[in-house]
Design a protein that fits this description.
Length: 235
């Protein structure tokens, strides 16, 4: 294992390798990602200029967010450590007529090779799947230009998140495969904000992402107890 691979959990990579074939099935196991994606993309588009911006999507998986960013005019690079999700992402981008550069790489490796090259960095639903999330945050801060924007989303280590995101989503409603999330790796907003500041990022906004099981719809709001998205700015 190289020095730059220390922050990769093979078990977590394997989980998403197993999901690769159904990544673009709108009614499959990735359905929640497709339903939440317009809200995440809208949040990002409201807070930074995407048209002709150089954007890197860290932990891009099968490319759901990467494609949305590209459709908003961004020049997108997507990185992930899962080979199969990247293959799916490349194929779907080609079928969609989108020019997206995908690469199998860690955030740390990309940061060492492309320091301060990007106008914006997105790292959504990834921090809770790595051994050292603070190192990923530092890498994202290193990748973005001064004056650029960085976006994170993750799950809060709060009892409500355990009930809804783990018990509810994985075991009751079967929205996600069992074992997708490890509650111990969930991150409180204060912890994330502290790591961001240590990495030289200013936290500009924290917004909650909620799911209503009755309407089966996601929405953005003030409740950060389960899932939340963060906008940071690099000085």
């Amino acid at each position: 294992m190289s020095q730059t691979d220390h922050n990769v959990d093979p078990n977590e990579v394997a989980k998403f390798e197993a999901l690769a074939a159904s990544w673009w099935d709108l009614e499959g196991q990735s359905k929640p990602l497709h339903e939440i994606n317009p809200h995440r993309t809208g949040y990002i588009a409201q807070r930074c200029k995407l048209d002709n911006a150089n954007v890197i999507d860290v932990g891009c998986g099968g490319g759901i967010l990467s494609e949305a960013l590209a459709k908003n005019g961004a020049k997108v690079t997507g990185i992930d450590m899962g080979e199969m999700p990247l293959d799916i992402a490349k194929l779907h981008a080609m079928e969609s007529g989108l020019d997206i550069h995908y690469e199998q790489s860690t955030a740390e490796t990309m940061a060492s090779r492309h320091t301060a090259e990007f106008d914006a960095v997105t790292c959504l639903e990834m921090l809770e799947h790595v051994p050292d999330p603070a190192a990923i945050i530092q890498a994202c801060a290193d990748l973005v230009k001064p004056g650029g924007d960085v976006f994170f989303s993750t799950l809060n280590r709060h009892p409500k998140a355990y009930l809804l995101a783990v018990v509810g989503a994985e075991y009751v409603m079967n929205m996600l495969p069992k074992g997708t999330h490890d509650y111990k790796r969930f991150i409180r907003p204060a912890e994330l904000a502290s790591w961001c500041r240590q990495a030289g990022l200013q936290v500009k906004n924290i917004t909650g992402i909620s799911y209503n099981p009755l309407t089966r719809q996601f929405s953005l709001g003030d409740d950060v107890k389960v899932n939340y998205i963060v906008h940071c700015h690099k000085v």
